[in-house]
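We emphasize that the prediction below concerns an isolated chain of 311 residues; any contacts that depend on oligomerization or on bound cofactors are therefore not represented. The input was used exactly as deposited, without trimming of termini.
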Amino acid sequence: MSQALNLPAVELNDVSLTLNDGDIHYNFTTNERHVKAAIILEIYQRNGQFKCRALGEASTQGLANLEHHVQVSLDVRPPSTHTLIQEAQQQQRTQPNNEARPPRQLQAGETWTGTAFAIDPYHLLTCYHVIESAAMVGVRQQGQPDREAQVVLSDIGSDSAIIRVSDPLPSYLPLAQQCVDILGETITTLGFPLSGLSSQLQVTQGCISGLTGLNNDIRHMQFTAPIQPGSSGSPLLLPTGEVVGMVTSSLVHEHAQNMNYAVKFQLLSALLASAGISLENTSDLTSATPLTTPQLSKQSRSALWLVGCQG
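Result of the prediction step, given as a token string:
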């Protein structure tokens, strides 16, 4: 059970937090009155442990400095589970479906989903937080058999991971090699947001609105295409069909709109190089002329996979 607290902004000298009928109790007294910050926290439970992540903050300090001042560890990565997805998937599994084989039912452990895209016949890219703590990872695509995947390499810093399947994938996407002056460039993203509500591939469009991430993080870029939980791992596609980034997070704040972030293709290339994966033969997959959104969707959809994880 989760509970949301919507309270007016006030200045606090003392904070007391009690969770799980008193199993967790935390008190904090501020000693520095000049430190002011507004921060949105989400507290959730995973694998029997309570965790806390920062959804957004407004201050003159970054989250790292704020973490130091309040003397508490903040997990700023997105959680691997989404309650809404789990509830919707459970409802979907219990409804009769005579037209298609129902998804495999996992009897033990929590489950969650994300998105991955193929970058060669055996490897896919997704987010680290999608496969984090997963005991089993699988990928699914309509019209294709389910496949179990193994984590080849992951990087918590860039929130990126490479997974591998044993059977060849039907198609894959070319990773951008060099892009200059892409600020304002139109991008299309394909993924499986809120897969419990709809297991169909979703397409959204926007533009690259910033060349750095939160707090000027050079590992990320900012974009405006709408995303939801489950979009993590979706590719950002240029009109040429090249992957220029991978969806990783979104800033949730009452005064922020379309502040979504993606890992830059340069870091994805470095991760692949670290795993010894060469992309030399993908240049012929790019289009010489810009594609329309329907053309881009049709050309790319077979490289997109729904990732299912079990803890």
